[in-house]
Amino acid sequence: MTFDATTGTWTANPVAIKGSGGFKFRANKGWTLNYGPTDGKLVQDGGNISAPGGVAGNYKVVLNLSQAGNYTYTLTKL
Questions:
Q1: Taking Cα atoms as reference points, which of 72, 75, 76 lies closest to residue 36?
Q2: Domain span at residue 54?
Q3: Which of 38, 52, 64, 70 is buried most deeply by CB count within 10 Å?
Q4: Are 34 and 25 in contact (CB under 8 A)?
Q5: What percent of the chain has pLDDT over 90?
């Protein structure tokens, strides 16, 4: 992922996401610091992120960690 200091977001584009399974955001190729959704929020050790509606394809992934306690991400199908 690439950091954009202007927006305070991390972006990866394109990312191939399978229709099943899932992924998490993690730091430095390890699992000590990892984020996934739980109860609609992106939290430490949360669940897996799946392709929206289970639709596999290439996505633009944007991760926003600029608001402590209110981390967000978006997946936009390309």
A1: 72
A2: 2-77
A3: 64
A4: yes
A5: 83
